[in-house]
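can u pls check wat happens w/ zinc ion
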Amino acid sequence: MINHLTLIQPDDWHVHLRDDAALITTVPAAARYFGRSIVMPNLKTPVRTVNDALLYRQRILQHRPKDSHWLPLMVLYLTDDTTKEDISAAKKSGFVQAMKYYPAGATTNSASGVTKLERLDPIFEKMQELDLILQMHGEVNDENTDIFDREAVFIDRHLRRIKEKFPELKIVLEHITTEQAAQYVEESDRYLAATITPQHLLYNRNHMFAGGIRPHLYCLPILKRDTHQKALIKASTSGSRKFFLGTDSAPHELETKESACGCAGCFSHHAALEFYAEVFDQVNAMHHLEAFASINGAEFYHLPLNQSKITLVREPWTIPDEIPFCGGKLIPLAAGMNINWKVKLP
Ligand code: DOR
Ligand code: ZN
């Protein structure tokens, strides 16, 4: 039995830090042991331009703990109005790592998202030319498509076409949730990779309705049936280079989750790496955790691996029931549950 694992410092390739008072909680949580975090641009007013990203980055860095070297990696939000000049400026900035595609209306703060994906073809062409990564929220937002099918339909309706038309465009299919996505990514070429969240590895849709409706497990793309959960566990723990850590940690205050129309998103930064360790350990794949958490993402983004190491130890502890957030509180992922792994900080 492994009781101890030292690995290259991990990165988080997908997180929501929010803005203003939320940064007091989210930034130190992100900086606790990750080397870098890809920061999602879906603020109430989206991060659309290089200048928006520059200012947001400065606000984030004001909350970085004194002795920390953690770095926020910035992303711009694609809209119907994004221009080729925006793409050139993003590339030239040197600190914008990717562009994020949200289908309009598909999820939290996506009202300014893209209404017709085909219209972005000239933008994708430019991104391919300049080697700028495209991150996709891979769901169709279509009333006629069942919510549990939206990711698989997105692959068939859109992603296959985009891959054919822009074969050298680097794409990250974000927070994948289905067997179809895992298989499509695994079988695809080196220009396509995917992030996987802890909640989609730890839970399936039954957990969301265990004894009643559990709003703190509601996220988008929504949890799917257990066969999909199993396929995601298999993909992430396989040692494949195409899958990497992206927590999608997305805090919402308690009242906005426990509501007649609750927000989508799970906060997981209180135990992010520990959650993944739990899953990898359960399938005897701890030896593949370093690739998933610390290597595959950096290689896909063409960034150097982190220099330092961190250590996970088998040491049971209990996830807190709640965490202070923005003057109120939030309910963290797996609140009140026992977990076997803990990161030991130097
Ligand atoms: O569950 C989610 N929450 N999915 C998303 O795509 C957005 C995120 C958020 O910003 O809360
Ligand atoms: Zn997200």
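The first strand starts at residue 4 and ends at 8.
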